[in-house]
Write a structure and sequence with these properties.
alpha/beta, seven-stranded parallel sheet, four-stranded mixed sheet, 11 helices, 18% strand, globular, binds NADP nicotinamide-adenine-dinucleotide phosphate, binds guanosine-5'-diphosphate-alpha-D-mannose
Length: 348
């Protein structure tokens, strides 16, 4: 008998990669989806189209992290061996606009699931999608690891901090196999279009093909440790396969600025060299050959409090999980830009 997994956030970037990964391992996968007025299953539709998978090994349930009644019911009915809590209002900038909702889903939503597990008494392992945003990104703390102090800098990070510690608490108080994966940024062609990497690759593809004039961004100098989501879901699974419940950082160990990401994307998509002129919100990026302005800065994309520099130290995961990321920074940018160019050609 294969194992049964329950995934919240199955329609998101990580949910889709994890579903594919677990199905390939022979799992029966159940996912919780939100009712929406438009279709929200684009990222997993290809799995349903496979007649060996859809309705045989993959099942969807309507639910929401703000509603404990459905979470209790689904957990009782599915009796999963593993629960992956990936659902979240995951956009840092948006969390400043909807702080209460963010804590309701990302913070309280987590205890709703943990408590449903505790009350039903089922023997399940619980994974919490914790985040490098917890560290606050102070340059003096890099590279950040499992022992680096937390300092949340947004309503999103503060909500995730609660979720992180309540996971630890349920492990210690009730003996649940409940663990946190403290994941640094991970991206892919399936990344939501308002996160900076995908916003850049999509816009650059469109600019190079004459469908958009410019790319408008916020802070060009913040730095992130960007990896590939496909590598990270393998790590997530490994964290739950350990004998003892422990928390792990997953990261590449490298950090790059938004500015570098932009430069590389233009170079790869159209052999365009970007030259930067001016400073702050007056700064622009021009095509050094034609002189055309291709990048502008707008203060609306700046955060009230910024996480300046994230670079993770994945050595504990490498040592104990034998986890290594396979895709490096340049390959990731190439993969994303190529996919966005291919999408344009398909749409055309
Ligand atoms: P994502 O693409 O934004 O997906 C979020 C998922 O959560 C979607 O399936 C979304 O459903 C669902 N969701 C949102 N609110 C919900 C609610 N109230 N009830 C039920 N489901 C809800 O995020 P991701 O990049 O895959 O990230 C997965 C998890 O890892 C998140 O918890 C995120 O905070 C965390 N994380 C991500 C990264 C990263 O770099 N990607 C790094 C560290 C931690 P809809 O499709 O209906 O919107
Ligand atoms: N989104 C966005 N849009 N970010 C911009 C822009 C822009 O136009 N211009 C500059 N940035 C900067 C942000 O200020 C931030 O410093 C950086 O680009 C990355 O922003 P996002 O891609 O939105 O990701 P994030 O790092 O804030 O959050 C992501 O990673 C976290 C892990 O560290 C999300 O996936 C979170 O859910 C995740 O926890």
């Amino acid at each position: 008998m294969g194992k049964t997994a329950l995934i919240t956030g199955i329609t998101g970037q990580d949910g889709s990669y994890l579903t594919e990964f677990l199905l390939n391992k022979g799992y029966e996968v159940h996912g919780i989806i939100r009712r929406s007025s438009s279709f929200n299953t684009d990222r997993i539709d290809y799995l349903f189209e496979d007649s060996n998978i859809g309705n045989k090994n993959l099942f969807l349930h309507h639910g929401d992290l703000t509603d404990s009644s459905n979470l209790n019911r689904i957990i009782e009915v599915v009796k999963p061996d593993e629960v992956y809590n990936l659902a979240a209002q995951s956009h840092v900038q948006v969390s400043f606009e909807v702080p209460e909702y963010t804590v309701e889903v990302d913070g309280i939503g987590t205890i709703r699931i943990l408590d449903a597990i505790r009350k039903t008494g089922i023997n399940t392992k619980f994974y919490q999608a914790s985040t490098s945003e917890l560290f606050g990104g102070w340059p003096e703390t890099e590279p950040q690891n499992e022992k680096t102090p937390f300092y949340p800098r947004s309503p999103y990070a503060a909500a995730k901090l609660y979720a992180h510690w309540i996971t630890v608490n349920y492990r210690e108080a009730y003996g649940l196999f409940a663990v946190n994966g403290i994941l640094f940024n991970h991206e892919s062609p399936r990344r939501g279009m308002t996160f900076v990497t995908r916003k850049i690759t999509r816009a650059v593809a469109r600019i190079v093909h004459g469908m958009q004039d410019k790319l408008v961004l916020g802070n060009l100098d913040s730095k992130r440790d960007w990896g590939f989501a496909g590598d990270y879901v393998r790590g997530i699974w490994l964290i739950l396969q350990q004998e003892k419940p422990r928390d792990y950082v997953l990261a590449t160990g490298e950090s790059h600025s938004v500015r570098e990401f932009v430069e590389l994307a233009f170079k790869m998509a159209g052999d365009i060299d970007i030259e930067w002129i001016g400073q702050g919100v007056e700064e622009i990026g021009i095509d050094s050959f034609s002189g055309k302005t291709l990048v502008e800065v707008n203060k609306r994309y700046f955060r009230h409090t910024e996480v300046e520099l994230l670079r993770g130290d994945p050595s504990k995961a490498e040592r104990e999980l034998d986890w290594n990321r396979e895709v490096g920074f340049k390959d990731l940018v190439y993969m994303m830009i190529k996919a966005d160019i291919d999408n344009l050609i398909l749409d055309y």
